[in-house]
Amino acid sequence: MPSAADYTQTGFRIREDDGNETTATWKAVLNVNEAPALGVNFRLRFLVERAALGSNDSSSWQVYESYNGGTYTQIDDAGTTKAAPFVSANYTHEDESTQQIGSGTYNGSASNDAMCNRADFVVCGMTWSANGGSVTEIEIEMSVLIPPGVVSNGDTLEYRTRRSDDALNDYTKSPILTIVKGGIRINGGVLQVTGG
Predict the structure, then answer these.
(1) H helices, E strands: number in the chain
(2) pTM of the full predicted structure?
(3) 133-167 pLDDT, tens digit each
(4) How many domains does the chain have?
(5) Rounded to whole angstroms, how far apart are CA atoms 67 and 73?
(6) Cα–Cα distance between 43 and 141 in angstroms, integer?
(7) How far is CA 15 from the centre of its chain?
(8) Angle (CA) 137 41 127, round 5°
(9) Which range of residues forms the domain containing residue 54?
(10) DSSP state, 4?
(11) How far apart are CA 192 and CA 33, in angstroms?
(12) Are 148 and 61 in contact (CB under 8 A)?
């Protein structure tokens, strides 16, 4: 039976919330951290790979946040995380996702309702098709907003997907946003968050 240990988060990309799944503007290239000003919603897209398995997997997927290297907490509307869910007008909750940032075999033949867009918490229910002897991938996207008053200069926010609230086998690439209030700063080639 499939479990979270069969999955690995292998990539991410950050984008504006200015279009649907195929037309929204990318803010940076694959696996480069960049974020908009605080108080402006934006979208995170994750690339997840599944090991070669001979059975379907129906499961729920969530996005978790780590604040300054602390415990990972599911993003919701209860104020337990710095980012809050933001309902985008540009796509519908659990729209099917298509391959936008990956290059492997896309697991799009089943119900991969991976475009998350809820006000209360970030979760998508998906069914991965049996993939026999090959690794497949899927892309999960969500819209969030980080209010200015909940973070301080130098804070870091890291985001990871989970399957049915369980951590995946590995996270080789995760978005890590560094808060820079009052200006824009380049750090190691990474454009960091600005805001008041």
Answers:
(1) 0, 14
(2) 0.86
(3) 677 888 888 888 898 889 988 899 999 999 989 99
(4) 1
(5) 9
(6) 7
(7) 11
(8) 25
(9) 4-195
(10) G
(11) 7
(12) no
